[in-house]
Amino acid sequence: MDAPLSRLPLFDIKGEQAGFAAELHRRLDAVLAHCQFILGPEVAELEERLAAWCGARHCVGVGSGTDALLIALMAEGVGEGDAVFLPAFTYTATAEVPLLLGARPVFVDIDRHTFQIDPADLARRIAWVRNEGKLRPRALIGVDLFGQPADWAALGEIARAEGLFQLDDAAQSFGASLHNRRLGTFGDATAVSFFPTKPLGGYGDGGALFTESDARAALYKSLRSHGEGASRYEVLRIGINGRLDTLQAAVLLARLTRFDAALAAREKISRIYDRALAGLVETPRRVPGSTSAWAIYSVLLADSEARQRARQALSAAGIGSNVYYPRPLHRQPAYAAHHDGTALPVSDAISERILALPMHPGLAEADVMRIAEVLQSAL
Ligand SMILES: *Cc1c(COP(=O)(O)O)cnc(C)c1O
Known about the structure:
14 helices; three-stranded antiparallel β-sheet; seven-stranded mixed β-sheet
């Protein structure tokens, strides 16, 4: 009998820890020694490191990726009567934030090959909203999905012409680049998440905002601390409790020492997948001129039945898989009532066929080959 094969999880947070364990313990011990758990020195150190790493002028650490999106829209005064354009095929947080502020999300379809927000559909929907005259086109939340950057050249051109605030939701994609520029400076602001399974994940919730604007950075710092002014007990505006924890900053500083190596490993694994799966499924199309952070490696199956067969075979072989996203947002109960009823055919079709396979820096070539064999026999 063959020896039992090891399980292959979708992510491997524990496995990655070995690469920076000594630095992690040193960093955590330092925090336990000074006990400045709120906005301790590690937060400012991380902000400086991350801003330098992606070439942004400012980085402001916040409580989560969702807080980053929320604070960015609060700072612009987005609210009632405003239309915020965002892809239908994304995580719920992107659409939740405009609604929390009383604004309306307007769902935009995606490109069928890269899964990124489709600039032509964005332009069309802005025109519809202007024609209808009920909502004011106000902001674009462009999502960099699965680790790849969206088409920021095209998106930026449309947003500038229409006077929209450009928010880059890079929650999944910090570490990616477009034409040799890392994400962090493409929008008026860029939101990042440090949720544990994101490419630069912490050990709890965390996030950051990047901006080139001194005024916006100052507002973000105020908004993350209850709208405080020059002193802690001067309240200038309505804010939130949205700070990045010192302990999370310490974890991230440790993890950052392995970030470049992890990104390189993910890229290498993606190439092995591309070759091993060619002809079997549709492998992810790369955004031209980009590098990906490979948060998620998603392939397309022929149809939902083929996806079901693939998932069953992978599961039986102890291989993790998941569907991002089984339902586009316009079909979610919470958002259906806020949708204008227009069709989003690509988002609908992709949600039936997409499947995420294991992706983390610890995957070996033999692991990918085993995954390919299981898929081969199932399909
Ligand atoms: C994860 C994610 C968020 C939210 O980040 P949290 O840190 O979980 O709040 C927002 N947008 C997208 C696209 C995400 O994937």
